[in-house]
Amino acid sequence: MPDKLHQTRGIVLRTVKYGETSVIVSMFTELFGLQSYLVNGVRASSKKGSGKANLFQPSAILDMVVYHSEMKQLQRIKEFRWGHIYQHVLTDVRRNAVAMFMIELLSKCVKQPENNPDLYFFAEDALLHLDKGSDTVSANFPLFFALHLPVFFGLRVQDNYSEDATYLDLQEGQFVEHLPMHSMILEGKGAYITSQLLKVQQPEELENIGLNHEFRRGLLQAYEKYYLLHVPDFGTLRTLPVLREVLG
Fold first, then answer.
1. How far is Cα 101 from Cα 166, in angstroms, rounded to an integer?
2. N or C, fewer C-beta in 10 Å, the chain?
3. What is the residue range of 115's domain?
């Protein structure tokens, strides 16, 4: 019985060369979640393959017709085209660094091929806002994405900051009144700004949060610790040093 054809959108997470002309693409799709696709001929030197490999850059959003079988780990794509043509994400150094950070964070959290359309639309919408946002919005975007992504995995940081609860306990994922016995905390301005970022509903609101580069770096380091504490086998973020350098 042939595999069924489905129409879906997908975000490219990672591309690996395969053979002389092909690639294996890891994608987060709207219909099927995390999937791997074998795409033949896109690296061919002929006119037929020319330029097609560009569509499989990490963070690219594609419209696809795919063959899908629950029994297979490696799927195939019948048709593909740009789902959105970025204005800045693939060409602007700063926005591209932010996008690569977002893609790596998403890749480290999504481990199974499970359908999760809400997460897909959040990720796609975030990339679209990054593309059209101002410099301030794009600089704050890694903080916004890192704080709001855990919601989809049951790891939400509770926004219970108050005059009394001013310490963010990274182990517990909530603000507490008393300094914990461990060092996995954010306090002072870091805790306050985190509570403000948690309140952001639309990325445009990031325009109103003025932070310097050094402060953003400190927050990103703290948020990486949060993921290390709560996501199994998280490891370290390879894109974070690049992002710190670019945003600096």
1. 28
2. N
3. 87-248
